[in-house]
Amino acid sequence: MKKKLLKLLSLSVIVACTIATLSGCGSQKQASGNDEKVVNVFTWANYVPDSVIKEFQNKTGIKVNYSNFSTNEEMLTKLQAAKGAEYDVVICSDYIIEVMGKQKNILMQPIDKSKIPNYKNVDPRFLNQLYDKGNKYSIPYTLGSQIIVYNSEKVKIPIKGYKDLWNSTLKNSLVLVDDPRIVIGMTLKKLGYSMNETDSKKLAQAKEELKKLKPNVKVLNADTPHNSLINGDATVGFMYGSQASTAVKTNSKFKIVYPEEGMNAEEDNFIIPVKAPHKENAEKFINFMLDGKISNEATTINQYVNTNKAAKKFMSSSYLNDKAVFIPDSELNRAERFRDVGNAAKTYDLIWSEFKQQ
């Protein structure tokens, strides 16, 4: 009788342990989702400063896995390959958001702004743009623009706009940001056309114009084109204002030019991919980045135009007086924004490929 009772007790213990083990596995599996203390951020290199990432991690206990891309097109290719999974927060440009919004299988999910109370800090001037009316999928992070910067000691011709970059005296002297929309857009603007041109004849003209520019181009660099100016490999550059600012701070001989043909302005935005594995952590990260003090810290370091009205009270005089970063409203108001060029994107890719192989 005792042996039979012991067997029954042993069986009960085994069953109880099995249930407990299975329950533990279930909890562990659940913890690997939104409860996991991880957020996967995908954007350009150094776009979210290390100090800001550390502050977020210290405040929330959520580890940031940071991955980077060089162009919006590269980002889209990788996001498509992942089918809107793998990443939790992507920071990318306005026109590529417009492209994604038109796709049959949208790779972004609508953002629940009730989970992001600091959304109220975004300057209304940068909301409700054509690429995402009502900001259903996106929230502005910063605004970027490209400008000309040159070495005033070595360049002896006046530089006022894009057209001057074609001057034969600048042979083997230029560094350009390695981005098809930016460089082709600059060329179209030089010809008097829109940066978003889709007319095949005008794009053919731009292609021929780029061929004429190639002898002047020494370096194409997406992430650090300013280094070519600083180390003397190039004397003139066309790059993001943040990159130009770094060059100017290194040496006062570098001068900034707002192209007389008109600048480009592009808003970079937070989006959450449709299958983000840690959606709640993504919301926490975006909300943290929209805090006024944090927003100011980010743009002070990455040197982009700040789109956060709550950040203004924290801005330093050096940031406000940086011509490469704090671009006057008179320039921004006439700047052209990139748009989705539809099927013409294939033509842009072909032009760029031939240009780089030339």
UniProtKB/TrEMBL annotation:
GO cellular component: periplasmic space
Subcellular location: Periplasm
Domain of life according to the entry: Bacteria
Binding-site list for spermidine: Y95
GO MF terms, alphabetically ordered: polyamine binding
Main subcellular location: periplasm
Signal peptide: 1-22
Transport in keyword set: yes
One of the GO biological process terms: polyamine transport
Pfam families recorded: SBP_bac_8
Keywords: Periplasm, Signal, Transport
Keyword Signal annotated: yes
Gene3D superfamilies in alphabetical order: Periplasmic binding protein-like II (3.40.190.10)
Name of the protein in its database record: Putative spermidine/putrescine ABC transporter, periplasmic component
Gene for this chain: potD
